[in-house]
Amino acid sequence: QVQLVESGGGLVQAGGSLRLSCAASGRPFSWYDMAWFRQAPGKEREFVAVISRSASSTYYVDSVKGRFTISRDNAKNTVYLQMNSLKPEDTAIYYCATPASITTSSVLPTTTGKYAYWGQGTQVTVSS
Prior knowledge:
The protein is mainly beta. It is 0% helix and 46% strand. It has strands at 3-7, 10-13, 18-25, 34-39, 46-51, 58-60, 68-73, 78-83, 92-98, 117-118, 122-127.
């Protein structure tokens, strides 16, 4: 049974930083891509960043490029999201997610439908 547990959210002023963590268990962590999504009140869940199983590839939504960095530590079964220069529009619940199966394509998955397992989410609030 795959379990994902996020941590690291909180309240921060605009321009500040936070680092989110997601601890995974239940299957070989290093075999699967990992991603972060977020959902703001009244909005659909949106893709933020994804990292390949070997960490050789990453991809970001345009709105966070240059500010957020996704990384993983396969020895610790953990994926991270370092968020710098935070803006009020980054306020959302942040979720980590992983696909049901190993990605065989060179294109990393960025849609919610490609992900089978989700954490419970961690709230990030950025004040202006």
